[in-house]
Amino acid sequence: MTERSQDGRLIVRVFPDYAGTVLWSGGAVDYAEAHLSQELEDDLHAWESFHRSRLDPDRATHASQDDYDFAVTGRALAGRLSDELGRGVEVHLIVEGRQVFRSAEAPINPRAAKAFHARAERQVAQARALIEKVGGGRWYAYNPASGSRFHPAPTCSDDNALGPLAVDSPATREGPFLGGDT
């Protein structure tokens, strides 16, 4: 399921992987679903290809300049993604640790911003449907060797398991921070 920051921004992670995309928000986000500008999508593909061809951990060695170039390019791409998605999104670049990018402006690509927020809302709805299906059940750990079950004590985070998104709030119908003008 997608995650939100403490102030309600949708979190989108950017990192190279083997999923055919560098975008992650509650799962790998296919570029076709993201509706990013073609230029940004092409640059994200190139960045991922650079990682595979030069920095893949299965390769014996690589130049330290490649690490530097990859990190600098990643920061630039994360900033552009943040600008396209606007103030309702927090972009986390997972290269050399985690770097967070936040725009204070409206999305310059409202279609992409709406696509990410709609994806998050679908995931919340699916999680709520699952909770209803299992009768509000709780998680537990099962040890097949002993047959015992461990039921962790409820915590305050259990009450917010679906995050701060209020499904019936007018703001969530269009995605927080998007407003009605996009």
Write up what this structure looks like:
The structure is a single chain. By secondary structure, the protein is α+β, with helices and mostly antiparallel strands. The protein has one domain. The protein is 42% helix and 12% strand. It contains six helices and six strands, in the order ββαααββαββαα. The strands form two sheets. It has a four-stranded mixed β-sheet, with helices on one face. A two-stranded antiparallel sheet has the order 5-6. α2 (38-55) runs antiparallel to α3. The relative contact order is 0.16.
Describe the SSE topology.
Blueprint lengths: L9 E5 L8 E2 L6 H4 L3 H18 L8 H22 L3 E5 L5 E4 L7 H24 L7 E3 L4 E3 L5 H4 L10 H4 L9
Helix pairs in contact: 2-3
Short description:
The chain is of the alpha+beta class.
Characterize the overall form. globular
What is the typical, i.e. mean, pLDDT? 84
Which strand order spans the largest sheet, edge to edge or round the barrel?
2-1-3-4
Instruction: Spell out the helices and strands N to C.
Output: EEHHHEEHEEHH
Primary descriptors:
182 residues; alpha+beta; two-stranded antiparallel sheet; 6 strands; globular
